[in-house]
Amino acid sequence: QVQLVESGGGLVQAGGSLRISCAASGRTFSILAMGWFRQAPGKERLLVAGIHLSSGTSTYASSVKGRFTISSDNAKNTVYLQMNSLKSEDTAVYYCAARDSTTSPYRYWGQGTQVTVSS
Question: How much of the chain exceeds pLDDT 70, in percent?
Fold first, then answer.
């Protein structure tokens, strides 16, 4: 099993920056890729950014490309999401997720951290 714990959420003004973190524990050696999802009230949970841990290859949703950066510190089993130029529409609960296969869905999830952007 893999456990994921997010931290770093909070309230920030529009145009500001915030970095959220996700620490993994347990069978971390089995993780191939990790991602950040977000879910706003009344909306579905969507992938924001993903990273392949060994290659460092990352992908982004078009809505955050150029503003958000996903990175990983494999020695610390931690993934980060640096969010710049935040907009009110970025307000959501952000969830960290991990998967042990690039062809299967994300199977491990954190509890989520709230990010609120005030306009």
Answer: 100
Q: What's the half-sphere exposure (Cβ side, CA atoms, 13 Å) at 16?
A: 15
Bridge-partner residues for 19, per DSSP?
82
pLDDT value, residue 104: 85
Give the pLDDT band (50/70/90) at residue 102. confident
Residues with Cβ within 8 Å of 24's Cβ and at least 6 positions away in sequence, in order, are: 2, 3, 4, 31, 34, 77, 78, 79, 98, 108
CA gap 22, 58 in Å, rounded: 16
- The order of strands in the sheet holding 2-7 is 2-7, 18-26, 78-83, 68-73
